[in-house]
Design a protein that fits this description.
Blueprint (H helix, E strand, L loop, with lengths): L3 E5 L4 H5 L12 H14 L4 E4 L3 H10 L7 E2 L16 H7 L5 H4 L7 H15 L8 E5 L1 H11 L17 E7 L2 E9 L3
Parallel strand pairs: 1-4, 2-3, 2-4
Antiparallel strand pairs: 1-5, 5-6
Length: about 190
């Protein structure tokens, strides 16, 4: 059985400043494109690539897998819908809502942690059969990728909050003695 390779898209202007970037379809910065290109050497061959439909993920896919398989777009890989918090930083949100944590509180007018986890479980259901053919890359976003890892580990939705995934990073999920594990997390190309 192959491993699940979570690839977070390269830097955007909002990821650089810590703004919550859900459905706002921002392009990669020049540095983000460079990050995505450097991923190619780290990733190697995969059997399948599945990507979010947002341009930052699509561009990362193109740059990180220049000779890879034709990617499949999966709408369930989009980033968390932050609703009223779109474009805000965590400190800005906490000015009005002290102690707010996305992983338990969700986003007003957006998604709850349980809704995001349900999307992630659907993705995992679709990609598990692909793992029989080798490693599968999922190119997406920081919070949704962390939620995917939590779903892989069968943790509650809030379990995703235990992971940090930097722009242009790779996290690998696999199994050990039949149990789901994180093989490596938040790896950046050298």
């Amino acid at each position: 059985m192959g491993e699940l390779v979570l690839v977070r898209h390269g830097q955007t202007t909002w990821s650089q400043t810590g703004q919550h970037t859900g459905t706002t379809d921002l392009p990669l910065t020049d540095e983000g494109e460079a990050q995505a290109g450097r991923l190619a050497a780290l990733l190697g061959q995969v059997a399948d690539v599945v990507t979010s439909p947002l341009q930052r993920a699509l561009s990362t896919t193109r740059l990180a897998f220049p000779d890879g398989p034709e990617p499949t777009v999966d709408d369930d890989l989009v980033e968390w819908d932050y609703g009223a918090y779109e474009g805000l930083t965590t400190p800005q949100i906490r000015e009005d809502r002290p102690g707010w944590w996305l992983w338990t509180d969700g986003a007003p007018g957006g998604e709850s942690p349980e809704q995001v986890q349900a999307r992630c479980r659907r993705v995992l259901h679709r990609v598990r059969p692909l793992l029989l053919g080798g490693d599968v890359a999922l190119v997406g976003h920081g919070h949704t990728s962390a939620a995917l890892a939590a779903a892989w580990l069968d943790l509650p939705a809030s379990g995703g909050g235990l992971l940090t995934l930097a722009a242009g990073s790779v996290t690998v999920l696999g199994t050990h003695h039949g149990h789901p594990v994180i093989v490596r997390s938040n790896q950046l190309p050298s």
